[in-house]
Write a structure and sequence with these properties.
Number of strands: 19
Distance between the termini: 47 Å
Number of helices: 26
CATH topology of the largest domain: Glycosyltransferase
Structural class: alpha+beta
Number of domains: 4
Largest sheet: 5 strands, mixed
Shape: globular
Strand order of the largest sheet: 1-3-2-4-5
CATH class of the largest domain: Mainly Alpha
CATH architecture of the largest domain: Alpha/alpha barrel
Length: about 700
């Protein structure tokens, strides 16, 4: 990130905001406003257009545009004279971001951050783009020229600009809703088959991933492919996901020293990353690698999941238990410098003998594979290859590498760190809670389970109002912004995962309470599905979203939550809402099979009911039985312990016992005869999915 020293400047209004992104701009000479009625009222009173800039704290090109334009005195002077300037943190106001990103995509055909928009005083956009250099170059208009042209047109062609803002708003508003048109007659299984075929055609069989560079991790794809393989025994679907996950973990996109994944790979080989690290990526990829471990039994997948969890607990955890949002790509204004290495630097730290092994393992050369003869570490040679080359045992090589990694990581820790975005977002914390709770159970790591519980307790204590309304963001003691759909859906997912991994009723009770609140505040009673946010005057229109991207759509997660809640409580209202939400999107995913793969996973459960494994009996024995279950990949199976006091369906309460531990395999509240641990293991071996190479 750039130099955010004050240089003797007075702070602007953003100094009073808690968002790290807005605080980065608090000493710009631009007369910034946060997104607030004060700015809108001034724009109307002075009949000025609004300049809206949207980004986030760890956004590389946001830093670049700040250095080039927003710290420039002459640019700021022009902005202050002709515009009302507003800064928005997209992670604090995702609904605002979604609405205006629609405008950027409509006008430019693509999107990204920083977003650069010009609005009429009624908040309707008439021009939208992304990053602009300070002066025109290479056929791209400069920001200064753009400002002058917009100001000129506002003075001479205002009526036309207002007409275009009305037309653009109508277009993006109508385009934001899923069209019903002719209802699809395809079943969810048929839609899933189409989606699997789409991924097979877009798959890179040599390098892994889907499409060409840049390559982004999109964990919802892996979840879909594993689920499809489980339901259909299609090993090819599993193989695409497994191969991609293997190549991602071997590449530079995975932090080979400190664990955790960078945002994406700029090349097709997963070698050179864009170096920022986002909490939502870590959370979802933990689950992807746990799936891969369960499906293959390969400990290397478990080690990656563990590496991600360890990174989050070490570097992204608040002392009281919540999880921070992200780490920047830049250190001291330069991308990647915290992570890359010169060969000579490693020799100085490790000596020549150890360096040879480390360099062979991680592809380190004198020439380098990154800028300025530096190296992005990636796994180039296997332990077996190194053992043979250096005439040592595999265990000896592992010992040398472990010791060397410890030395390098300690030295890296002395470098200037990238910015850490220390706001705590309810939704992203929910995803991480789900991941840690599952990892604690699958990997037998009680410390992960403890961390998940601490985070859930932190959210419950700090991110609800006095009357219990969920909030979206916490920082420095301030909870703000009513919960969005992602806040509710992702946290409910985390609470249900905690319930599964602890057998503690409190988490299910909290999940039910939040689901009822989500239904009350965000459910679309007319059309079905959930709005992203509550209705308010500063939002041009309410949106639902129709894409599972780097973050899943809240409606996709909500369908899964609702079906699990129905399976646990027997409340038909939950299943009804799940069905209406899935039907709302059916045409969309039938026409665009890649758009919402996670929705398909959960909607398919409506037609093909999930397995419910009900454990009953002495608590510790049922926990041990659950741990055995967690060594198998079982798709959407719902696993829980029946007790008389649990907020469960009466039928399941009737199965509760304090005697010998048994398991009931059920579907739609119809159960087989109880099984002991031995019988259950035999059954799981027959129904669990294990990958076999095709």
């Amino acid at each position: 990130m750039g130099d955010h020293s004050t240089n003797g400047r007075k702070p602007n209004r953003l100094i009073n905001e808690r968002s790290p992104y807005l605080q980065q701009h608090a000493y710009n000479p631009v007369d910034w406003y946060p997104w607030a009625s004060e700015a809108f009222e001034r724009a109307r009173a002075e009949a000025k257009p609004i300049f809206l800039s949207i980004g986030y704290a760890t956004c590389h090109w946001c830093h670049v545009m700040e250095r080039e334009s927003f710290e420039n005195e002459s640019v700021a002077e022009f902005l202050n004279q002709h515009f009302i300037s507003i800064k928005v943190d997209r992670e604090e106001l995702p609904d605002i971001d979604h609405v205006y990103m629609s405008a950027v995509q409509a006008l430019s055909g693509s999107g990204g951050w920083p977003m650069t928009l010009f609005l009429a005083p009624d908040l309707k956009p008439f021009f939208a783009g992304t990053y602009f250099p300070p002066i025109s170059a290479y056929g791209r208009p400069g920001f200064t020229d753009l400002l002058q042209r917009v100001a000129e047109l506002w003075g001479t062609e205002r009526v036309k600009l207002l007409e275009s803002s009305e037309a653009l708003t109508r277009a993006i508003s109508s385009g934001s809703e899923v069209k019903e048109a002719s209802a699809s007659t395809l079943s969810w299984k048929e839609i899933a088959d189409r989606t699997a075929e789409y991924f097979k055609h877009s798959y890179d069989p040599v390098l892994g991933g889907f499409g060409s560079a840049p390559k982004f991790p999109r964990p919802v794809q892996f979840e879909f492919l594993f689920d499809h393989a489980f339901r259909t025994r299609d090993s090819a679907s599993a193989e695409m996901a497994l191969s991609t996950l293997s190549k991602m973990a071997a590449g530079g996109m995975y932090d080979q020293l400190g664990g955790g994944f960078h945002r994406y790979s700029v090349d097709a080989k997963w070698l050179v990353p864009h170096f920022e690290k986002m909490l939502y990526d870590q959370a979802q990829l933990v689950e992807s690698y746990l799936d891969a471990f369960q499906i293959t039994g390969d400990r290397s997948f478990a080690e990656v999941a563990q590496g991600i969890c360890d990174y989050v607990l070490r570097d992204l955890t608040h002392p009281d238990g919540g999880f921070f949002s992200a780490e920047d790509a830049d250190s001291e204004g330069v991308e990647g410098t915290f992570y890359v290495w010169r060969l000579s630097e490693i020799v100085d730290l490790l000596g020549a003998d150890r360096t040879r092994i480390v360099a062979d393992r991680y592809g380190v050369t004198e020439e380098g594979n990154f800028e300025h003869r530096t190296n992005v570490l990636h796994r180039l040679q296997t332990l077996e290859q190194l053992a043979q080359k250096y005439n040592r045992t595999k265990e000896e090589i592992k010992s040398v590498l472990a010791e060397s990694k410890s030395i390098l990581l300690a030295h890296r820790g002395t470098r200037p760190r990238p910015l850490r975005d220390e706001k705590i977002l309810t939704g992203w914390n929910g995803l991480m809670i789900a991941a840690l709770a599952r990892a604690g159970s699958v990997l037998d790591r009680p410390d992960y389970l403890t961390a998940a519980k601490r985070a859930a307790e932190f959210i419950w204590a700090n991110l609800r109002t006095a009357d219990g309304v969920l909030q979206h963001r916490w920082r420095d003691g301030e909870a703000r912004f009513d919960g969005y759909l992602e806040s509710y859906a992702f946290l409910i997912k985390g609470l249900l995962s905690l319930n599964r991994s602890t057998f503690e009723d409190v988490w299910l009770s909290h999940a039910v309470e939040l689901q009822e609140q989500q239904d009350e505040r965000l459910w679309d009673r007319a059309e079905g599905a959930y709005f992203m946010s509550t209705e308010r005057s500063d939002l041009l229109f309410r949106v639902k979203g129709d894409y599972d991207g780097a973050e899943p759509n809240g409606n996709s997660v909500a369908v899964g939550n609702l079906l699990r809640l129905h399976a646990l409580t027997g409340q038909d209202a939950f299943k009804e809402k799940a069905g209406r939400t899935a039907d709302y999107y059916r045409n969309r995913v039938a026409d665009r099979p890649y758009a919402m793969p996670l929705l398909i996973v959960d909607a398919r459960t409506i037609e093909e009911p999930e397995l419910q494994i009900v454990l009953s009996g002495e608590e510790q024995a049922t926990i041990e039985m659950r741990n055995k279950i967690d060594q198998h990949y079982l798709g959407n199976a719902v696993v829980f312990r029946a007790t008389k006091s649990s907020p469960l369906d009466e039928f399941y309460q009737s199965l509760a016992s304090d005697g010998e531990a048994v398991a009931y395999l059920c579907k739609d509240f119809t159960c087989e005869l109880p099984m002991n641990e031995s019988t259950l293991t035999t059954k799981l071996n027959s129904i669990g999915f294990r990958w076999r190479a095709t």
